[in-house]
Specification:
- The chain contains four helices and eight strands; from the N terminus they run βαββββαβαβαβ.
- The chain is α/β, with parallel strands linked by helices.
- α3 packs parallel to α4.
- The N and C termini lie close together (about 10 Å).
- The relative contact order is 0.20.
């Protein structure tokens, strides 16, 4: 049975020193590199935002980081500018072994729409192409790791379950923002209730 590893947004801007750093985000890289060797396919997602992206607080005069903006039916959290193509922050962490990547999914590329999930933009309608790639290969089993636990990892896991995948969350290979406080714990419980299995990288498949 084929299995794929989804590495979510392991980019410089989400690691210490980046504009939207997740605490200890870089600490998972060695374990992720080791983990990837056990999978048939390895996919990495990345935020890939234009400078005028809707999620940037800087594009909304008078608004601050972590304020919430209502755009239609979507609640948009405002963040610092991050992961703009051509900037160092958009690059994968330098210690991530990119030779193992079979596919890179760029998300949040439209100025008007953010994307947390590796499968859909935040309208929950626009696909990134990841589902089609996996289904065409006959892959139904996934493991998910990366940044951040309570945002892009969470939405990737939840969409994968809705699409019918069997999903493992690799708990020692994720780190969270924890905004609002307690969000990481709440999201982990929610993923488990939805059907995700919480494992560690050393656990048998």
């Amino acid at each position: 049975m084929k299995k794929a590893l989804i590495i979510v947004d392991l980019q410089r801007d989400f690691c210490p020193g980046g504009t939207l750093a997740v605490k200890d985000g870089d600490s998972i890289v060695p374990a992720v590199n080791s983990l990837a060797k056990s999978f048939d396919k390895v996919v990495a997602t990345r935020d890939w935002h234009p400078k005028n992206h809707i999620s940037f607080a800087s594009n909304h005069p008078g608004k601050k980081v972590q304020e919430i903006l209502k755009t239609g039916d979507i609640e948009q959290v405002l963040w610092p500018d991050h992961c703009v193509p051509g900037t160092p922050g958009a690059e994968f962490h330098p210690d991530l072994d990119q030779r193992m990547l079979d596919l890179i999914i760029s998300k949040g590329t439209s100025p008007e729409l953010d994307s947390y999930s590796g499968f859909f933009e935040n309208d929950h309608l626009t696909p990134t192409g990841l589902d089609g790639y996996l289904k065409n290969l006959g892959i139904n089993d996934l493991a998910v790791c990366g940044l951040a636990t309570d945002y892009c990892v969470f939405y990737t896991v939840m969409d994968a379950i809705k699409l019918g995948y069997k999903v493992d969350l690799v708990s020692d290979c994720v780190r969270g923002v924890d905004f609002p406080p307690g969000n990481v714990h709440a999201r982990l419980e929610e993923m488990q209730k939805a059907g995700a299995r919480i494992i560690e990288s050393e656990d048998p498949a």
